[in-house]
Prior knowledge:
This protein has 14 helices and no strands. By secondary structure, the chain is mostly helical. The protein is globular, with a radius of gyration of 26 Å.
Amino acid sequence: xxxxxxxxxxxxxxxxxxxxxxxxxxxxxxxxxxxxxxxxxxxxxxxxxxxxxxxxxxxxxxxxxxxxxxxxxxxxxxxxxxxxxxxxxxxxxxxxxxxxxxxxxxxxxxxxxxxxxxxxxxxxxxxxxxxxxxxxxxxxxxxxxxxxxxxxxxxxxxxxxxxxxxxxxxxxxxxxxxxxxxxxxxxxxxxxxxxxxxxxxxxxxxxxxxxxxxxxxxxxxxxxxxxxxxxxxxxxxxxxxxxxxxxxxxxxxxxxxxxxxxxxxxxxxxxxxxxxxxxxxxxxxxxxxxxxxxxxxxx
Length: 299
């Protein structure tokens, strides 16, 4: 190898190393940006009220105290709210995926006439919505107030997820494979069950995660639709009321003894409501990575 070629290789190697270091630094900064706020919240939830009120807690708890968590678990209805949230999340995710699959598969097939117009109609809902008041009037007219279905049915379909699944089916399931199955006598349901669903498993897991996380973190609809049936209050709404009551009690009593500081209780509530859904990620991480990478590489 000539000396000039060696020099060029060394320069390229040095250049690539520099870019590699820059990329790693950017990823580290982005990771810390997501991680440190949660660590700060955990530290506040485990700290004594006096240190939190004095803004002396950052990334490590000071004066370790579990009073906020004891206050959360002292309410027996918390377990009931957790059960309701899990039930609603499961029903919401299963129903949402069934509707999304049943809509995405026909829209991905060229045999469907008018599929472009139907797709545009779904896309319009991404930009224009009826609003909160029409939604409430509709739920009221359907007689679903104070029922579990008011938390499951209204949002059990996402046009955004539909478009993602439709594009994935189009790119992952070749027309020749469908034609081969038709020659063997398979119908649409057989093709969907035996060919489309196995090939789109990564994107299905990704969309299921989107549905589950969206439902788990939602509480505004329960705030509107669940008024008298307190046993149907999901975890997020129950914890919201717990924080409000603690804030009012704290303002009236002006003491740190009988109740935790609203700031500490709020941090404990965030940790308590976040940990269950975080535990789901490790089980579907491999599908999530494969799902978000679909279509990124063209062969």
